[in-house]
Design brief:
Rossmann fold; five-stranded mixed barrel; 8 helices; six-stranded mixed sheet
Length: 362
């Protein structure tokens, strides 16, 4: 049985449906992420799980029991916010101890549990400090320790790392993965950051305009997007208008606008004449100065029209076919990071049939 189940939940604010007929299941011990752009409904859904907002329709169940009659303070959940919400007049140790004191835990037991919680978030020597003496990352660790100290069934995290700089955010992502694994508590995490979701999650629910567009593991939503929105939102993707010309099981032969015949995979059954897009990730494209050969690979002659040097990789904008512009990505693996191509260079592009995905319209 799922630990938490969302059944056809809808929430409206006036005439706007912030969440529309959302359904998903979250398993015990899972790191589950709600991912989507601003305004897609992910935070509203999290607030309904916490009990801060009430659904207009549908059910939220914990262990199969409807939570509709359970107020927020009686749900075995805690929420960690981007703002940390620490008490400035309390020490780190007292902030962490607050939920236990509210539950009237014996002070002798409380001290040991606070010490253990400080160790879990690597703040062993900071229990006597006050929040104003902490860095952003340290404040976030205190908020996590306070939320976890009484071992809730669910930890709800609403964009908790958004206020941190890139380097610290990446460090905290690694720590969150280790912490969740160590404590074994189910995390439900909200973010608009695709890279963060891919790095942290066991599974991801991608949301758009109040609806759940796709649920899957990070590799599933990245490699096999269910629709144009998911393909475009998760990472970078070339999306080229296409029509199915022939089928061979999961393999399809496409007529791609401006390119002609291209072979690809289709993640769901389709028919001859179906329209959609060829989704092709930049890292799947090979660039060479000489033409290459390969059984079912697609091959095109192109011209470099632009490039972006990003340190570890360079992104090339390449014009191929009838004025079709695609992005290709190459690692900067040579000594001193020398870039291989320059604007105006003619080069050959190729990719295997299994690199492209045909996505239906609708």
């Amino acid at each position: 049985m799922a630990l938490l189940e969302i059944r056809h939940v809808t929430k409206r604010f006036g005439g706007l449906a912030a969440v529309s007929d959302a359904s998903l299941e979250i398993q015990p011990g899972e790191f589950f992420t709600l991912l989507g752009p601003s305004g897609c409904g992910k935070t509203t859904l999290l607030r309904m799980i916490a009990g801060f907002d009430v659904p207009d329709a549908g059910q939220i169940l914990l262990d199969g029991v409807d939570l509709a009659a359970t107020p927020p303070e009686r749900r075995p959940f805690h929420t960690v916010f981007q703002s940390y919400a620490l008490f400035p007049h309390m020490t780190v140790a007292d902030n962490i101890a607050f939920p236990l004191r509210m539950a009237k835990v014996d002070e002798r037991k409380l001290a040991a549990r606070v010490a253990a919680a400080l160790g879990e978030v690597r703040l062993q020597d900071m229990g006597t400090r006050y929040p104003n003496a902490l860095s952003g990352g340290q404040k976030q660790r205190v908020a996590l320790a306070r939320a976890l100290i009484d071992r809730p069934r669910l930890l709800l995290l609403d964009e908790p790392l958004a206020a941190l700089d890139l380097k610290l955010r990446e460090q905290m992502q690694s720590e969150l993965i280790s912490l969740q694994k160590d404590v074994g508590i189910t995390f439900v995490y909200v973010t608009h950051d695709q890279g963060e979701a891919l790095a942290l999650s066991h599974r991801i629910a991608v949301m758009n305009e109040g609806r759940v567009s796709q649920i899957g593991t990070p590799d599933e939503v990245y490699e096999f997007p269910a629709n144009r929105f998911v393909a475009d939102f998760i990472g970078t993707c070339n999306l080229l208008d296409a029509r199915v010309m022939a089928l061979d099981g999961e393999r399809v032969t496409l007529n791609v606008a401006g390119l002609g015949t291209v072979r690809a995979w289709s993640s769901r059954p389709c028919q001859q004449g179906d329209r959609g897009v060829l989704a092709l990730r930049p890292e799947k494209i090979q660039l060479d100065r000489a033409p290459s050969s390969g059984g079912e690979a697609s091959h095109f002659l192109g011209t470099i029209r632009g490039q972006m040097y990003l340190g570890d990789v360079t992104v090339y904008k390449v014009e191929i076919g009838n004025a079709v512009l695609v992005e290709a990505l190459l690692p900067n693996s040579t000594a001193r990071g020398a870039r291989l191509f320059a604007p105006g260079d003619q080069i050959y592009l190729s990719w295997g049939y299994d690199a492209g995905r045909f996505i239906h319209d609708g």
